[in-house]
Amino acid sequence: MLASSLGRRDEGPNVELAQRIVKTEDKTAVKELVENLSNTKSDVQADCIKVLYEIGDKKPKLISGFVRQLLALLGSKNNRLVWGAMTALDSITLEEPAAIAENLARIIEIANKGSVITRDHAVSILTKLASTRKYEVRAVPLLVEQLENCPDNQLPMYAEGLPPVVNDGNRSIFMKTLGSRLGGIEKESKRKRVERS
Q1: CA–CA distance, 193 with 184 (Å, rounded to integer)
Q2: Is residue 72 part of a domain?
Q3: Can you tell me the distance from the alpha carbon of 164 to that of 48, in angstroms, rounded to the nearest whole number?
């Protein structure tokens, strides 16, 4: 049912498969997808990670038991698997916060040298962890670091994700960090998005 098996170059079959698995809560299919992340064919691997993160987006519980396998993919030489795994990990962060928090150093390391999508999802992971009392202390400094060093283009989106994280204890550091970046943002629309956050 994967796109590559059907000779298709679009993602339609993968999205449909994910929807079907979510609807039926087919745990056997999820296990098969995870097993095929190490398939010898890269197009099968790509299809499997796509289906998995689509499932994670709709019903994270269905893939949360495979956090270890998803974390292992961060070391892949295949960039598609790396950002796909980060996307899936983002979707299960609140299901498996302890496992994700335990691997933050690795997640940040991969984000800092990865694609824009990889970094976007790593920042989303940090934001979710920072919004929980238990992981706030660990996640907030890493999130601030990302805000200080991310490309100007990404800053407005990251800033817009901050409201659930900001509280009386950390408001000043976020305001100071975002304020220090405003001068470097050339586009007024992007600057206004940061200011509104």
Answers
A1: 14
A2: no
A3: 32
Handedness of CA 17, 22, 23, 24 (dihedral sign): positive
Q: 14 near 50, Cβ under 8 Å?
A: yes
Q: How far is CA 51 from CA 32, 58, 147, 183, in A?
A: 11, 11, 30, 41
Rounded to an integer, what distance in angstroms lies between the CA atom of residue 19 and that of residue 33? Answer: 14
Query: Is 81:75 a contact under the CB 8 Å cutoff?
Result: no
Summarize pLDDT for 48-88 with one digit per residue, the tens. 999 999 999 999 999 999 999 999 999 999 999 999 999 99
Band (11; pLDDT cuts 50, 70, 90): confident
Residue 12: the pLDDT is 76
C-alpha closest to that of 2 among 12, 14, 11: 14
Looking at the domain assignment, is residue 58 inside a domain? no
Identify whether 111 is part of a domain: yes
Would residue 94 count as lying in a domain?
no
pTM beyond 0.90, yes or no: yes
Contacting residues for 67 by C-beta, under 8 A, at least 6 apart = 89, 92, 96, 99, 100
| DSSP symbols for 91-144 | HHTTTSHHHHHHTHHHHHHHHHHS-HHHHHHHHHHHHHHHTSTTTHHHHHHHHH
155: containing domain: 102-196
Q: Count of domains in the chain?
A: 1
Q: What sign has the CA pseudo-torsion 115, 90, 75, 55?
A: negative
